[in-house]
Amino acid sequence: MENDPLVAQMEDLELDQSTLFAQPRLLFTRPKVYVETSTNGKEGMPGFISLIETTNYEHILSWTPEAAIPGLDQDSYVDISSEGEYDSSRFVAPPRTPEALRSRSFHPSDYAVSVPLQSIYSLLVYPPRIKDRQGSIIINLIGGESLPAFYFHDDGLSKGKGLPGTPPTWGGQELLNHLEQLVEVVGSAIEPGVYLVNASRADKINHGAASPSLPASSLPSSGVQDHPLREVSLRGEHESLYPDISSINQPASPAPDTATTTATGSITVEGMRRRRSLTENSRSNSPGTGHQQFASATGSPNISSSGSFSGRPRTPLPFENHIDPLVNTVKEMRWNILERFSQVARFSRDAATNILDHPITKQILPPHVQQRIHESEAAKRVMDDYDSARVYLAKWAATVADQSDKERREVQEMDRLRQGQSGTGSHPTHGRNGRRINDHEDEEGPLGAFNVLDLETECTMIHHSRTDPLSPMDWFSFFDDEGRLKVSEGHVREVVFRGGIEHDIRIEVWKFFLGIYPWDSTEATRVALRASKAEEYYELKREWFDDASVQEDEAFQEQKLRIEKDVHRTDRTISFFASETLPNFAGDFTGVGSNENLELLKDILLTYNVWAAKSPSDRAASTDKTSTSQPSDILATGETLNSPVEPNLLEGYVQGMSDLLAPVFAVMGDEVMGFWAFVGLMEKTKKNFYRDQVGMQSQLETLCKMIQVLDPKLYKHLETCEALNLFFCFRWLLIWFKREFEWVDIMRLWEVLFSDHLSTQFQLFVAMAVLDKHRDVMIDHLQGFDEILKYVNDLSMTIDLEESLQNAEVLYRRLEHVANKVDAKRQERTTSSENGAEATPEFPPALRKLLKETPPSTST
Amino acid sequence: MASRKKVLLKVIILGESGVGKTSLMNQYVNKKFSNQYKATIGADFLTKEVLVDDRLVTMQIWDTAGQERFQSLGVAFYRGADCCVLVYDVNNAKSFETLESWRDEFLIQASPRGPENFPFVVIGNKIDMEESKRMISQKRAMAWCQSKGNIPYFETSAKEAINVEQAFQTIAKNALQQEVEVEIDFPDPIKIDSDTSKDFGCAC
Ligand SMILES: Nc1nc2c(ncn2[C@@H]2O[C@H](COP(=O)(O)OP(=O)(O)OP(=O)(O)O)[C@@H](O)[C@H]2O)c(=O)[nH]1
Ligand SMILES: [Mg+2]
């Protein structure tokens, strides 16, 4: 397990054992446990079954519908943040019997259920059979009620069936195994499939003629089958599809000592009948269960709550050391794991909205981060139960660790502010994202000599500089009376790089960054520019709009179709583009209506085709951009006309452009400025769309080099996965993460990229930051190109922007650091020996280009 | 008893942008249709468990971007495919006319063993639209399929879930056949007859 990211993470984060032990813990969880509902038809409603230990060592079994967890299923998601409906009394849990089973309410969270283990009387276990593939468990409560049947859908988990000697674990069995560690569970000898929880002596007698006085120690530890009180094992009883697993885990769990007579006080004959009738339905009825005896035994006082081993250290059952045979089948199941992974990614999108903060668990778990950490700690222990849970919990833990990391940083920040220091955040280079610290040790990296550099320790003190967004007040203070910038352009770039821009002034500031306004313009110039830009735009537009011959041209029509088709699929969830106030003129597809803004998107894209056809498209490539070069303000300067005309590689609309246009158009708010802002953005991104794809290719190659230098271990892993083409980053780079972040984040990200402050290719550092964040999971769990692609695609909308930007900056500094080190080393060697420089590889030129030129080091 | 060996079938969906590749895949796997799927950028896949001739197989269905410009990415995605689905929009003649080049391009990039026998399936999608909009007749499409070595042909609606299941059943079946032919030399290691084997767990 030394590869386990959690281990390292926990070492980092486990703060104070004594406080942590007081926290609730998640002991076991399993997804895809279905409950029949009136709405979901036969299939039922999927959810998670879990075992939780509360702070006072009470154990709770709960089932939470997937749909009640935000993000898991957008369609059925209903806001369940209101807590009022939950009874926060003793069991800090929702009503024992799901409300919805009684009423006709279909609110998913109504189906959530949670009961203390002490209140469980028995379990009716129906293992999977040939006809009934799922298998189910019905839980009967002491009060006589029954919980809805839990169907354990193991389809996704049991694909290892074909492997010799690797019987898969049925979910129900796992639940039993875990229950067994918390309470006494005995199987009834006379009613197969019935398992009593913390049974009273009377019950035991009734169900298995167990000698009431038999001390635990004298129970035979083998020959389980002979003993009426069978161990929790489904062996051979029901032609189970699943071979017995727990029988491997000998010896039997110790029988309860006599003191742990259970709380059976509330059992009523009626309750018992109900349970009986449940069992009678499906299995042969055994006679002589002695109802009277049973009833008479119910008067026994509640001596101790044996359901909880409070304060008593539990010796691990042999079960815990047993290697789940499922581990062997993991390879077989990877696809299913990945499916789950995708859910998990969404699931953990916001630590605050997953299970822990679900109203049901919220009441059990106070919202402190420390205990979240502890949750993961506990989670870690059950991670081996089966791999998808492991992965699920790993992700969960990563989120939790994140959260704590963030809060810790906030605290540090506060401290710093209090001490009157600058607001610069420091970025902890270890512990962050739970990343292992010593990864680079004994790594024979691909660049050999680079390993001499102890990156991790030398870069510990690298800080990011992120701060608050540029406010309107500050922005206006940058200008003199004429409306001319009085601070340097570089200063504005830096400010925007560090904090972005408050939304109200984006509309103005972006015009500078996107080349509409020259940096040294006055207000008067800008007023004039606005007029001339409008004129220029409409002139371009007229070329297709007013020209019937163009309109009839086949190529034009094809372009128009392409554009229409994509525009109608672009950001329709954003209110700016959502309405359907106009008919869909394209008349195509599904008959979803259009609106004015969508129609303008189309016009702008068509006009851009005209514009692009007239301009040398390879401009960006010819003026090799280094960090000091300014973003294109060709529009303002008219410099375009003098550039040598190069072959136009753009050739019209390419998919992805509509994604780029939508935000700039929305920020500008009108057609003319939307168009010119788009032109400015395309200047920065159009190489991505060239026919030969060379722009994308070179970016991917550069990113690959960056991985090689900054994270040799990840590089190696990608190599073994045959994933070095980094195609899984294609979408990221093509449209600047447009599909990976929410709308508001996209604006924040893009202005940082517009700023060109540290690098004109800062998107590569952002990409590196996201990869860095997930590198442990990738290395540990993902074993092929397709798995990585799936995983990365599914990160969409789960990525924390602020953190990514911070980390991207740190990574930039780190790369810079490496470059300087390598240079210094090479210099050292050249001066000391003639051929020494050859021993130290040159810093990759492709990476050098990403870095701002720094004055040659004077330190030596 | 059928073999229980785990099989992963890789299926690639190709065709012009906008013909409904993403919609078909989601209709088949998730039983959902949304008219808000975004244009696919890069590639993605979904998996689905299916029973084909008594065998439980996992289909890994790859959905790719439709614009030719992105075809150079294809190599990475096409490799190891067991079946290729060519989709066109029955209301869009051009999407039909380009099927041939999608097919050729696939064969070049995927370079499967025995390209003549590589299983393709052709789908004419969006048959829910008005008949008057239809540009490609069933007859014409079938003639083309026949000329390409009897490619199975289906007409579907991803929107209305017409024929989608059937098309993918055939896709799975043909993909499995391909897979079996490729891996014929690996015999099934163990036969687990679920009805009779109760006791194959550890006996200690
Ligand atoms: N009427 C109708 N519309 C459909 C059908 N299938 C897809 N569409 C619509 O056609 C448009 C394109 O569908 P997609 O599934 O995104 O097409 P695609 O082939 O994946 O497109 P790219 O990702 O660009 O290659 C969307 O607006 C869909 O709603 C169908 O069966 N009937
Ligand atoms: Mg698509």
TrEMBL record, chain A:
Classification via Pfam families: PH_RBD, RabGAP-TBC
Domain Rab-GAP TBC: 500-757
GO molecular function, one term: GTPase activator activity
Compositional bias of kind Basic and acidic residues: 404-418
One CC-aspect GO term: cytoplasm
Region listing for Disordered, in residue ranges: 243-320, 404-445, 619-638, 823-860
Highest taxon above the source species: Eukaryota
Protein name per its UniProtKB record: GTPase-activating protein GYP7
From TrEMBL, chain B:
SMART domains linked: RAB, RAN, RAS, RHO
One Gene Ontology term from the biological process aspect of the record: regulation of vacuole fusion, non-autophagic
SUPFAM superfamilies: P-loop containing nucleoside triphosphate hydrolases
Family annotation (CDD domains): Rab7
Domain of life: Eukaryota
GO cellular component, one term: fungal-type vacuole membrane
Keyword terms: GTP-binding, Lipoprotein, Nucleotide-binding, Prenylation
Molecular-function annotations in GO: GTP binding; GTPase activity
One Pfam family this sequence matches: Ras
Family in the record: Belongs to the small GTPase superfamily. Rab family.
PANTHER family, alphabetized: RAB FAMILY, RAS-RELATED PROTEIN RAB-7A
Protein known as: Small GTPase superfamily
